[in-house]
Amino acid sequence: MKRLLLLLLACLPVMAFAQGFQVNLHGQKQIGMGHTGTGLLQDGASVLFNPGALSMLSENYVQAGISPLIFKSGFNPAGTNDSYYTKSKLATPFTFYGVWGPKQSKFKFGLGVYTPFGGLTDWGNNWQGKYSLESLDLKAIYIQPTISYKLTDFLSIGGGFVYNHGIVNLTRAIPLADANGADGQAQLKGSGHGYGWNAGVFIKASKDFTIGLNYRSKVNTTIKDGDALFTVPNSVKANFPQPNTFTASLPLPSTSSIGFGYTPSNKWLLALDVNYVHWSVYKVLGFDYAKNTPTLQDTYSPRNYKDGAAFRAGAQYQAKDNLFLRFGGGYGITPVRDGYVTPEAPDANRYYFTGGLGYKVTPHLDLDLSFEYEKVFARTQTNIESNLSGTFKTNVYIPGISLAYHW
């Protein structure tokens, strides 16, 4: 029973760290161009991609967007022909950016509200891995006030403070049947907050070539007084004291990025980004319960993730004065080591393709659309804690839309 509870609680931070729950949906122009943006000067999404670029923007911005995310995973247990699939759920990552500064000022101020981590997964309660996971709902909402300063006509810097509000709700079955043969269930839910920062440098190396450097810090998010709810047969309820709460700390990883932008003609814009995500901060996981029993003890579980990287490229073509076509793609390297793959984040190396359309509704109003298809490579694994063994396959589909008003 103690091992069961250890496995139950060990799944929680995987939501935040696996590549599948790092939501890189931070601007429709940038998504359409393969998620490039560190070395580009496009719109208010620079608040996230590179705060150093804000003071180089020629206009002020207010913009908002949403990217409904459809995450579809399948699982084939080892040695069988059975298949299990996640239920159709729709997550809704969103962005809001505001950028303002007087026309002749070297300063610009910005505000970003965005969702860099999140997920919505539901395997149901009748699949082989139900003792590992039934459902998961995770949201991490970052709020980032920002300031940028133009040092020269070719060099600017910027940075912002980050406040994170995180929400989690996770359920899984417990192999303790009641008189009707129904499994018990555990639910962990709660919210917490954390702090970090985002800083960047933007360089106009020439009239056609730009370079960006950006660092987004680790954000330690602490959940205090989260609810630990257990539905179990009456005969063992004393082992699962109710009400009960838990405290946990989840270090959301930092990201280092370098990006390049190149304008070969007045019609074309090309971009390249390289992102290095410092997943190795996720070494161990611990949970501290307000009430313990010989069965329900505080837990400690090693994870030992490795750092990961992503390579992204994209292009934009101006078809008409008011119409822009975008396309791109990229490749991501998983941070999850063999033996740690779970149904919360059935992660593996992945590639993706993106496309987009930008339309100037008026001289001051932009409508941007994007679409992304993401393919996660099939991965056959046996989890070292739960012993869940089989092959995971995952596909992700993400349309997106945003409006931007600039003046």
TrEMBL record:
Listed InterPro entries: OMPP1/FadL/TodX (IPR005017)
Signal listed as a keyword: yes
Keyword Lyase part of the UniProt annotation: no
Protein name stated in the entry: Long-chain fatty acid transport protein
Chief location of this protein within or outside the cell: membrane
Keyword line: Cell outer membrane, Membrane, Signal, Transmembrane, Transmembrane beta strand
GO cellular-component term (any): cell outer membrane
Top-level taxonomic group: Bacteria
Organism: Mucilaginibacter phyllosphaerae
Protein family per UniProt: Belongs to the OmpP1/FadL family.
Region forming the signal peptide: 1-18
Topological relation to the membrane, as annotated: Multi-pass membrane protein
